[in-house]
Amino acid sequence: MKTVITYGVFDLFHEGHVNLLRRAKALGDKLIVGVTSNEFTRQRGKLLLADSLDTRMSNVRNCPYVDEVILEDHYGQKLEDVQKYGADVFVAGDDWTGKFDFLTPWCEVVYLPRTPGISSSSLRNSRLPEIRFGVIGNGRIAKRFLKEAKTVRGGVRFRYVYNPNYESAKRFAEGYEKLTAVEDLEEFFRSVDAVYIASPHETHYGYAKAALLHGKHTLCEKPLCFSQKEAEELFSLASENEAVLMEAVKTAYCPGFIKMISIARSGFIGDIVDVESCFTRLTEKGVREWEGEYKGSFTEFGSYTLLPVMKLLGTKDLDVRFESVLDEDGADLYTKAYLSVPGKMGLCKAGLGVKSDGHLLISGTKGYIFAPAPWWKTTRFELHYEDPNATETYESEFLGEGLRYELAEFVERIQGWHDSDYLYTKEETVTAAGIFERFLKYRSEQMR
Ligand code: C2G
């Protein structure tokens, strides 16, 4: 009996897949197919899948050429499976030619010609409604964002860029094939379905409000705004105008951070009592971070440091007080925000003018979680207990600059695949805005 094995994601199961499976089966007597898990698919760089794992596995199982379906969820598994199932032949499409030659000591490796003209990506793109995106502002973050956006499909098309300085927008657009600079803001809003706001802090609220009033889905760089009332108003506008509103706190959408928070909330280290987070980046004077009403360290990094504290202390009855070291212009070089709810406390440290270790430490009644710097790009975290031998380490991928994850989430919500904001809730955004409001008041009082 000759066993053949092959693997794939099999999203939107199509004729190309069936052809491959038919020819694979013809090479032996039994065909085993590994279907890639969602997490492993994401780890390999594909962020948006149209079908659930259940659907993808059933489609493969119902294909008449398939005898057995297994789950593929890690690197190295193909070699393990070839040995475990005694596979005689390994099959992949010829888009993979050469990639699996390392299996030849154990089995025959065959690359079959792909069926031309069809792929899961082209189906996803043609079935999903196109989302015409516009970006407001064309600074450093916009550039990084557009680079990352290329990895997120799901109908996303970045088409327009707006900047009150039209010449600057035009120069920016020249660097991209299909991006057009628009001079008039009204025309910009009329041309798009969704906007990404990447302009200076003080303009976020105004642009977000205008975008939502035009019924446009809005992804706004952090901080969304600097008062609780404004944040509440923006969310009301979003719901009245049936638009998705998300604050782009990238860490909230990254797989490693999501896993760490879920583990912390699942009782692994007992009850959470203390959360300490720190983000510093020494920054020379003369750039945006040191200018304007919202300059300084806490407004720059507070959105990150507040995130794990709000996730683990909650937002209800959250008390906060601050200590800052200010420069002669009233910008905070360094800020500590002390947060508390009954029985729990948190500390957020932010520095543009002071360097500290950017780790996250979550302390509980049975142990603690430690994520080393840069914890906001969570790739690794450790669980420690009284018994030093019981330490556990968790790892997760963090692809590129990590901005792709927030965009993928935004796109999933726009496409209506789900409507939950659990990764970064409205309450969390509103609470953070309220904390910034209190901070600005504290800081101006210090200057008197
Ligand atoms: N395929 C094909 N013709 C197409 C499209 C896909 O023959 N028009 C083949 C692919 O080459 C692959 C299989 O169908 O062998 C599954 O394709 P995908 O679902 O796109 O999965 P992929 O990302 O290629 O993962 O072992 C390799 C990977 O695990 C396969």
Descriptive key words:
Rossmann fold, Dihydrodipicolinate Reductase, domain 2, 448 residues, 6-stranded parallel sheet, single chain, globular, 19 strands, 25% strand, 3 domains, 8-stranded mixed sheet, alpha/beta, binds [cytidine-5'-phosphate] glycerylphosphoric acid ester
Structure commentary:
The protein is α/β, with parallel strands linked by helices and 448 residues long. It folds into 3 domains: 3-121, 3-Layer(aba) Sandwich (Rossmann fold); 128-248, Rossmann fold (3-Layer(aba) Sandwich), CATH 3.40.50; 252-446, Dihydrodipicolinate Reductase, domain 2. It is 34% helix and 25% strand. It is built from 14 helices and 19 strands. The chain has helices spanning 15-25, 38-43, 53-61, 77-84, 120-127, 140-149, 166-174, 185-191, 204-213, 228-240, 255-265, 297-313, 403-414, 426-447; strands spanning 3-8, 30-36, 68-72, 89-93, 108-112, 131-136, 156-162, 180-182, 194-197, 217-221, 245-248, 272-280, 319-326, 332-341, 344-351, 360-364, 367-371, 380-385, 392-395. The strands form 3 sheets. An 8-stranded mixed beta sheet has the order 13-14-15-12-16-17-18-19, with helices on one face. Strands 8-7-6-9-10-11 form a 6-stranded parallel beta sheet, sandwiched between helices. The chain has a 5-stranded parallel beta sheet with strand order 3-2-1-4-5, sandwiched between helices. Strand 13 (319-326) and strand 14 (332-341) form a beta hairpin. Helix 10 (228-240) packs antiparallel against helix 14. The chain is globular. The chain binds [cytidine-5'-phosphate] glycerylphosphoric acid ester. [cytidine-5'-phosphate] glycerylphosphoric acid ester binds at residues 7-10, 16-17, 20, 36, 92-93, 95-96, 114-115, 118-120.
